[in-house]
Specification:
With 241 residues, the protein is an alpha/beta fold. The radius of gyration is 18 Å and the shape is globular. Helix 3 runs parallel beside helix 4 and helix 8 crosses helix 11. Strands 3-2-1-4-5-9-6 form a 7-stranded mixed beta sheet, with helices on both faces. Helix content is 42%, strand content 25%. The chain starts with a helix and ends with a strand.
Length: 241
């Protein structure tokens, strides 16, 4: 996974993210609702982006310290407009968690774990960073996510199914739930704009030619007889330590 490309693409499209990431916003709202606690001492948010989840956490939780992390430094401007009580850290969270001895009462993340390289090790490390009675809440995406794009381009992230998460967490009590959300667009070009404006095009660094675009539009019409659709497959996981 090219984390430099991920950082570059998301940084370039921060200003368009809020308007276009409708599914991610809904996911943040649902994720917070899964918590049976409202008061925490220390909170860590992973992949805060422009603050969808941060805003929901501020509305629903009380805390003493709140650390928001993202690999994109430009996210800090968005987060600090929400609250001056939040400490922002720009870093690769896999490295931070591996090397930090700090523990938290709540670790929370929305629509970010699909970008983690070594997910099983990362989850093990995350759980070890929870205080006794602590909570890990995260949302990510399952196997059906953006399957239209995979059908056409053959490119996708290493999305895991609920069954795979159950296997990874087999010795850890957890709650898991998934959804299917389908967005409709006027044209294949609008699908591409949506992917670009939400940073999802970070999985491919190649520049498209005119022929690539024509092929994309043609193949989209073969898999969507009516308006082009784009499928999202949110997964929500709750782990109480």
């Amino acid at each position: 996974m090219n984390k430099e490309l991920i950082q570059k693409r998301f940084a370039k499209n921060l200003s368009t993210y809020n308007e276009n990431a409708k599914i991610q916003k809904r996911m943040a709202e649902k994720l917070v609702s899964l918590s049976d606690r409202t008061s925490f001492d220390n909170i860590l948010e992973i992949g805060c982006g422009t603050g969808f989840l941060t805003e929901q956490a501020l509305k629903n939780f009380t805390f003493n310290t709140y650390t928001a992390n993202d690999i994109v430094g430009g996210c800090e401007d968005y987060i600090l407009t929400l609250s001056d009580k939040i400490k922002f850290i720009q870093a690769d969270i896999e490295e931070v968690i591996k090397n930090s001895g700090k523990k938290y009462d709540l670790i929370i993340s929305n629509a970010a774990f699909q970008w983690i390289e070594n997910l099983e090790i990362f989850l093990e490390n995350l759980i070890s960073k929870l205080n006794k009675g602590g909570l890990l809440l995260f949302s990510t995406f399952g196997r059906e996510n953006l399957h239209e794009i995979f059908q056409i381009t053959g490119k996708t992230l290493n999305y895991k199914s609920c069954e795979e998460y159950d296997s990874i967490l087999k010795n850890i009590p957890h709650f898991i739930e998934e959804e299917i959300q389908v967005l409709a667009f006027k044209s294949p070009k609008d699908v591409l704009k949506h992917l670009k404006y939400t940073g999802v095009n970070a999985i491919d660094s190649a520049a498209w030619t005119k022929a690539d675009m024509i092929n994309f539009e043609s193949r989209y019409k073969t898999i969507c007889s009516a308006s082009p659709t784009l499928t999202y497959n949110p997964i929500y996981i709750k782990i109480a330590h």
